[in-house]
Prior knowledge:
Blueprint: H1 5-17, E1 31-37, H2 40-47, E2 52-58, E3 64-65, E4 67-69, E5 74-78, E6 86-97, E7 100-112, E8 118-121, H3 138-144
Parallel strand pairs: 1-8
Antiparallel strand pairs: 1-5, 2-3, 2-6, 4-5, 6-7
Amino acid sequence: xxxxxxxxxxTLLLQACGxxxxxxxxxxxxxxxxxxxxxxxxxxxxxNTMDLGAQLRIDxxxxxxxxxxxxxxxxxxxxxxxxxxxxxxxxxxxxxxSNAVIILARANMNxxxxxxxxxxxxxxxFFYPDQDGDGYTNLxxxxxxxxxxxxxxxxxxxxxSSSENYILHDALGIDLFTGSIASQDxxxxxxxxxIN
Length: 196
């Protein structure tokens, strides 16, 4: 079949402009990339060879494992591809204790994923839960080697501070090692690191 010059030009214009039908095979999703500085309070656990883990939850869904870059004190990882929209992200730092996950720190943020782009997200502030409700965070109890699940097993406030220049505070802002009040404001972040 012989193409007339008009038909040939029309065919070229159609190809250049597109047919108006979007290719369903084009992936328009984006990625959330976590690149988070590790909180100083948790760096100590790395030095103590604890089995520390990190996971990302998107809109409360299934956890996605993240990796540690210990040389640079970073928590890193990518989400699976996500539709372009706003999401709630939760970063959880944890240890496994007798097949149970103990959350040591959690941080939340909202961010929008843009089509075909990678969005780097980082979190601040971190919150430190108190699983047994005894007034001492899970991290403070882990550091003091008391029962995270037992509200009657609390850190002894007469324990001397370690030589690593950290001062641990419990959920009410009370210094774990001296029993002194760090602040009149019982912050919801309920755990602070003070580095000399």
